[in-house]
TrEMBL record:
Main location: mitochondrion
Domain Lipoyl-binding: 65-147
Database matches in NCBIfam families: gcvH, PRK01202.1
Cofactor: (R)-lipoate
BP GO terms, sorted: glycine decarboxylation via glycine cleavage system; protein lipoylation
Function noted in UniProt: The H protein shuttles the methylamine group of glycine from the P protein to the T protein.
Record-linked InterPro entries: Biotin_lipoyl (IPR000089), GCV_H (IPR002930), GCV_H/Fam206 (IPR033753), GCV_H_sub (IPR017453), Single_hybrid_motif (IPR011053)
UniProt KW Nucleotide-binding keyword: no
Keyword annotations from UniProtKB, A to Z: Lipoyl, Mitochondrion, Transit peptide
Organism: Yarrowia lipolytica (Candida lipolytica)
Subcellular location as annotated: Mitochondrion
Residue positions, PTM N6-lipoyllysine: K106
Record-given protein name: Glycine cleavage system H protein
Length: 172
């Protein structure tokens, strides 16, 4: 069940995909690292950062926990976030199912699970303060801390930073 915590206005943005609102790649500053000192960065000393073609990032930590958020590219393309909905802890999410939603002045986008996982902890700070998605998308603006379900192919179809850059260049 999705938990709704904050809605900054009663106005709803129409459902849209992000592709039509994406700014030209040359205008974007590509930075594919977690913000130093952010919760996903401080969680452990070693993690592997991967990306999806839906413009999400996943930081896999050594103990099997992962953090999921949207990329800076996605945050800039969405514009000012006005509402964020995140899945509650304890729920199991299947690959390709929505586990959250981000509404902005430009669009409404479901956040799609890149692999099967259980939500360990939801980031309700981002639901309470949607602008955190824009200020720190690759840091404290993460959506959830998750644990891949045993046997799930968590890295299948995910991209390295270099592959994500190439994907962005070819998409425009």
């Amino acid at each position: 069940m999705l938990r709704t915590l904050a809605r900054s206005s009663l106005r709803f943005a129409p459902r849209a995909t992000m592709a039509p609102t994406m700014a030209p790649l040359t205008m974007m500053r590509l930075n594919h690292t977690l913000i130093k000192g952010s919760i996903p960065d401080k969680y452990s000393n070693k993690y592997t950062l991967k990306f999806t073609e839906d413009h999400d990032w996943v930081a896999f930590h050594e103990d099997g926990v992962a953090f999921i958020g949207i990329t800076k590219y996605a945050a800039e393309a969405l514009g000012d976030a006005t509402f964020v909905e995140v899945e509650e802890a304890g729920n199991e999410i299947e690959k390709d199912d929505a586990f959250g939603n981000v509404e902005s002045v430009k669009a409404t986008n479901d956040i799609i699970a890149p692999f099967d996982f259980e939500v360990v902890e939801s980031n309700f700070d981002v639901a309470d303060t949607p602008s955190l998605i824009n200020k720190e998308p690759n840091g404290n603006g993460y959506l959830a801390k998750v644990k891949p379900i045993e046997g799930a192919e968590e890295t299948e179809g995910l991209l390295t930073a270099e592959e994500y850059d190439e994907f962005l260049k070819n998409a425009h």
